[in-house]
Specification:
This protein is an alpha+beta fold. The protein is built from one helix and six strands. Bound molecules: zinc ion. Zinc ion binds next to loops.
Length: 101
Amino acid sequence: MIKALKNNNSVLAYKVNKDFKDYKCPCCGELVILKKGMIKTHHFAHKVTADCINASGEGEIHLSAKLAILNNLLDKGFILDEDVFIECMLPNKKRIADQQS
Ligand SMILES: [Zn+2]
């Protein structure tokens, strides 16, 4: 996932740093780890194997494509969590939409 919560506000992995240790999953509220290396798209992962729909690993192509689409929308003036939503739980609570606008 490329989005997590920091003090109940949405943050994107590529915009934050590892100094903060209490990023939380927007779906289940459990702590997540910021993965910010040199090769893969910056993202968050659950600390432990969690029974969360957001805990399934996403491939690098999926993460980078999701981030590219999001950044394109943000560059056009859309506002995160107001105009465009990412990684949000669908009403049936069994699936997560990568993006909605
Ligand atoms: Zn979770």
